[in-house]
Write a structure and sequence with these properties.
single chain; about 140 residues; about 30% helix; Nuclear transport factor 2 family protein; NTF2-like_dom_sf; SnoaL-like; UCP029394
Length: about 140
């Protein structure tokens, strides 16, 4: 695995591990800024699977309200790939598989994500686009993690 791919995969998995801990209520509440918000570029946007766009400030407000709200929630990241790199910016894709998601109609769901990252210390998230994986893909795969 290349060093860029390794750094990108580690960043994506680490951030989603924090999401799991936050949702489960096992993260330190004081770490929201250092482990999540500070990793988002000030102009960060996310387009969620339903097509809604959200800013960094919107995410912070939402996360502050959800600490410990989903004790059985788990995430597994799969298939991280670097699709393009130019200078210190990397376009990567990955799939995110969720179990126990109370905020969605499907408690077991999966999405395909495309992320634009800036390679810095720490890595900065610039933009994220999520798309629901179709039912036939989810049905053919395992949620046994």
């Amino acid at each position: 695995m290349s060093s860029v791919l390794n750094a990108v995969a580690q960043e994506i998995v680490s951030l989603h591990d924090f999401f799991t801990q936050w949702s489960n209520g096992t993260a330190d509440r004081d770490h929201l800024e250092s482990r999540f918000i500070s990793r988002l570029h000030p102009d960060f946007t996310i387009v969620s699977p339903d097509g809604a766009a959200h800013t960094r400030a919107h995410l912070k407000t939402g996360f502050e309200q959800t600490f410990g709200s989903n004790p059985g929630f788990r995430i597994e990241i799969r298939d991280v790939a670097v699709r393009f790199q130019s200078g210190d910016q990397v376009l990567a894709t990955y799939s995110e598989w969720q179990v126990g998601a109370q905020r969605f109609a499907q408690s077991r769901n999966a999405r395909f994500s495309t992320v634009l990252l800036k390679l810095a210390d720490p890595i900065q998230w610039l933009h994220l686009q999520e798309t629901w994986l179709p039912e036939e893909v989810r049905a053919a795969d395992r949620f046994d993690f």
